[in-house]
């Protein structure tokens, strides 16, 4: 007797995918889980559906759910009340600091809290006040305050 895929197989697969999403959040397995659930629902409504059509339906629903989420997300981006929370350097933009090392040939250093950061800006002596105006990876762009 050949193995028959039943609707509850798809629902178990959906639960496994959602569990994977919970344990390792990637926000990808969720959409595949939704597609698996809908495929199981289609099989419940149409029990004569062959396994080839089930797999094709699952593939189409997977792509469709991901594309629909992406479309929705681009139109409604998630807005955070703390956009710089995990961007430590960006939190310092706009801050005025004193140079701990002179800026020579466009490169110098500043001390911020417990760290030393590399800066780029116009040449000037140590001890001068500078304002952080930007961030390029881990190097601040600064301007001298007169």
UniProtKB/TrEMBL annotation:
> GO terms for biological process?
proteolysis
Q: Name one GO molecular function term.
A: peptidase activity
State the source organism's domain of life.
Answer: Bacteria
Q: Which residues cross the membrane?
A: 12-45, 51-69
Q: Where in the cell is it found?
A: Membrane
Which terms are listed as keywords in the entry? Hydrolase, Membrane, Protease, Transmembrane, Transmembrane helix
Q: What membrane topology is annotated for this entry?
A: Multi-pass membrane protein
Q: Where is the NfeD-like C-terminal domain?
A: 90-143
Its predominant location is membrane
Q: Which organism is it from?
A: Methylophaga thiooxydans
**Protein name as catalogued:** Putative activity regulator of membrane protease YbbK
């Amino acid at each position: 007797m050949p193995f028959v895929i039943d609707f509850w197989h798809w629902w178990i697969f959906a639960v496994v995918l959602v569990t994977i999403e919970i344990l390792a959040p990637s926000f990808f397995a969720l959409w595949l889980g939704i597609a698996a659930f809908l495929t199981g629902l289609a099989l419940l409504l149409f029990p004569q559906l062959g396994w080839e059509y089930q797999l094709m339906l699952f593939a189409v629903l997977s792509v469709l759910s991901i594309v629909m989420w992406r479309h929705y997300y681009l139109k409604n981006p998630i807005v955070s009340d703390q956009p710089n929370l995990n961007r430590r350097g960006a939190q310092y933009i706009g801050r005025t600091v004193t140079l701990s090392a002179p800026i020579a040939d466009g490169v110098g250093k500043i001390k911020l809290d417990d760290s030393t950061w590399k800066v780029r800006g116009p040449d000037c002596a140590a001890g001068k006040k500078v304002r952080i105006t930007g961030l390029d990876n881990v190097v601040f762009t600064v301007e001298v305050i007169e």
